[in-house]
């Protein structure tokens, strides 16, 4: 009864909860600031290394129908340039998800906190909070090597999440699986405890699928298990069966199974990556690196194939009759 009266009072006074102001999760669903379910169907783009080219590609990425842009970033990045990218994403009706690539494969809890401290840095924080209604924060890309335990992953992220909440961030925080992003077991075992430790209970998990996911049945089984455990999850990066697995990542993952299973479970996805990969990873370029727009076979399949971006992506409702709020 008290909660009902409080809700009525908040409505009368015009007080809005964070769930109405920012992205948040309800069980397995990501809900946008307009209060509508949102399923990510987006692209990873290398702004950290190829800034201007990556920025110029945003219009072409948006033309695929992508509803989310994972901004590959690093702590050397300037707040003003990050704002430029975020602002353009919003203008193109793509949800910006900022991630920091500095600690990929690193297992130091202190280094993970460094990532949280970058977001909380005054100039960066000012930018992020200006656009927070539209924003997702992926704390760190693939933090945690293969031998990281569930306990270490969980406790390290508890501290990083606490720092970000104390800094005032309310939007959904995206947490990568350890094991270079590929080990879903800590999410399945300790994910709910991590959500419970967040004062806003607003965590979205992300698993990356490469050589550890060459078994198609594993893809189906583990994503279904996450769904049954009511864990909010996306496949934040994935590759495909290139050269029958004879590639630098040993990847034979069936991307069609990934796309179809995500669609069936209402889980989001983001293939790696638009373009600009180094020579050994060039097979993962979605478009030709020479012009940044001509789709490769990989790009054509994940953009225009069954359950791909163009077929499944729906823009966030928050963009309808909304505008960027000044902070």
Structure description:
It is a single chain. The protein is α/β, with parallel strands linked by helices. It has a single domain (21-319), classed as TIM Barrel (Alpha-Beta Barrel). The chain has helices at residues 2-13, 18-21, 51-56, 58-63, 79-91, 109-120, 122-130, 150-166, 185-197, 216-228, 255-265, 297-304, 309-312; strands at 24-26, 29-31, 42-45, 68-73, 95-100, 136-138, 173-176, 203-209, 233-238, 268-269. Helix 11 links the parallel strand 9 and strand 10 (268-269). The model is unreliable at 1-19 (pLDDT under 50).
In CATH, the architecture is Alpha-Beta Barrel
For the biggest β-sheet, the strand order reads 3-4-5-6-7-8-9-10
* CATH-assigned homologous superfamily: Glycosidases
What would CATH call the class?
Alpha Beta
- Rg, alpha carbons: 19 Å
Give the low-confidence spans.
Answer: 1-19
Helix and strand content put the structural class at alpha/beta
Largest sheet: 8 strands, parallel
**Helix-strand topology string:** HHEEEHHEHEHHEHEHEHEHEHH
Shape, per Cα inertia axes: globular
Mean pLDDT across residues: 93
Number of strands: 10
Beginning-to-end CA distance, first to last residue:
35 Å
By CATH, the topology is TIM Barrel
Topology overview:
Layout lengths: L1 H12 L4 H4 L2 E3 L2 E3 L10 E4 L5 H6 L1 H6 L4 E6 L5 H13 L3 E6 L8 H12 L1 H9 L5 E3 L11 H17 L6 E4 L8 H13 L5 E7 L6 H13 L4 E6 L16 H11 L2 E2 L27 H8 L4 H4 L15
Parallel strand pairs: 3-4, 4-5, 5-6, 6-7, 7-8, 8-9, 9-10
Antiparallel strand pairs: 1-2
Helix pairs in contact: 5-7, 6-8, 8-9, 10-11
Features:
327 residues; alpha/beta; TIM Barrel; eight-stranded parallel sheet; two-stranded antiparallel sheet; 13 helices; globular; disordered N terminus
